[in-house]
Each structure stands twice: as structure tokens, then as C-alpha cells.
Amino acid sequence: MDFFAGVLGWTVIAEPGGSFSGFVGDRLAARVVAGDLGWQVVFGGDGARGLRANSSVDGGRVLHGPWAPPPRHGEPCWVELLTGTPGEDDEYWTRELGWEAASGARALGLFTSARHGGPRPVAGTMQSCLGAESSWGVYFAVDDVEAACAQVVELGGEVTSGPGALPIGRVASVQGPHGGSCALLEKPAGWGGNWAG
User: Fold this and answer.
1) Domain named VOC: which ranges (predicted)?
2) Going from the N-terminus, what domains does the chain have, and what CATH number goes with each?
3) How far apart, in whole angstroms, are the C-alpha atoms of residue 185 and residue 45?
4) Contact, 189 vs 70, CB < 8 A?
């Protein structure tokens, strides 16, 4: 928690049972739960339930996403399903979350939703070179990706790729000194960075 708070500027609040919450202003950015492995992505939807690939649904107010305020430094700004074969699980996610698998060359690997108006990108997919089972990867907004990467190294973490330009924007992948991988996205204008426009 200290590592990610240092890189992402979270205000940390201790929770019962050894867990911690990281806030950016008045918005919850992440919760670190004692004993959990990796990121657990919580999607807004109808009926709280568990889903595949380190994710679940909660019927409460959505804090981050395409209809939320623009992400600030330290807030989640995109999620991407890392999978052995992109597209193989599209039917599952569209059925469970009411999404559409976007079509067209520019939209390859995108899910969209029209839950609160016109369709907007809500998540991406990317082929994992590790061949592991599918899991959700999380992107966090940063004001300056180079400065954030320098902070990662200073705090004992590792920059595993980047910084570099991708269709979503300028990104880097990082890992904390005790595990916990994520991507950093520089100055996203909205949920999904360049996909938002």
C-alpha cells in the first residue's frame, strides 16, 4: 500500500481486518484487502455477484468509468482483460455486463456500453504472452509518466515496460517491490485515455 500510495499520491486510511483504502480527494481509488492476490476489478451493474477473471459486480454507485468525472492523478482510468486468445470470452462479458464487443479495425479489442447514454468504451482486451488464465489489468492516471516511473524505481519497484506511446496514450507498466502490477496512463482526458475521444 505504501508503494502505490507513494507513486499515485493516495491518502491511505486503515480499515478493519488489516485492509487499507487509498483515496484521491474524496474518491476511493483502490482498496487493499489483506490476503487478496492481485487487483480485483468491481464493475457497476445489476445484482452483486462474482465474475470470472478477478472481477465482480456491485450494484452501488460507480466511482470510475466512462460516465464518471475525468480521472485525476492516482485514480483508475481503464481496465483491460489480459487473455490467451482475445475475443474468446467476448460472449461471456457481453452477456454478464450488457456490453457490446466493438467492431471495426480501430475498435479491435474494445468493449462498449450504452448503459447511461450513447455507447462509450468501457474496457479493452489484450493478448497475454504468458498464456495464463484471463485476468483484468488496471491502469491508473498520472500527470507525468516519466516522473511516476522515476518514483516507482525510487520506492523499490520496477518499470517492466515503457514509457511509450500506445493507441490508448502514453503508458508504462510497473510492478511494486512486493508484487502488484499495473499500468500508468499519462493525463487521460477521460476513461480510456485516447479511446474516450
Assistant:
1) 75-187
2) 2-196 (3.10.180.10)
3) 25
4) yes
